[in-house]
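Weekly modeling sync, notes
Attendees: S.R. (lead), two postdocs, one rotation student

Agenda item 3: backlog of single-chain predictions. S.R. asked that every request posted to the team notebook include the full sequence so nobody has to chase files. The rotation student volunteered to paste the first one in as an example of the format we agreed on. Action items at the bottom.

Example entry:
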Amino acid sequence: MVKLTDYDFQFSQPLTAGTRTIRVESAGLQAHEIVITALTPGKTLQDFIAWEQGGEKGPLPTGRWLGGVTGLDAGGHAQFTATFAPGNYLILCFWPDAKDGKPHLVHGMAKQIAVS
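Predicted structure, as returned to the notebook:
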């Protein structure tokens, strides 16, 4: 299970390789989303943020997009299934902030995790 708060992702346990059905709960005051993508080997969350802030020029520092849930209102829940190989992944929220309209990842709702 992963809980979406203003502005964080809280996993109930570490993700491990294999096909996983992930329950998502929105516990923040705002709507959120969760998007999971594999990182290109050698790339990091900081590379993705630099790419995004640099006008999304050059090669995207991520690989395969695994899925997620979008537009989950406060108090809502959903689930999705994805297959994870060992490696590094990004967990992102692009949902626009209710106060300034900027994507939540600008407010720190972006995380890098390792799957073993």
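Discussion: group reviewed the output briefly. The chain has a mean pLDDT of 94.
Action items: rotation student to repeat for the remaining queue; S.R. to check formatting next week.
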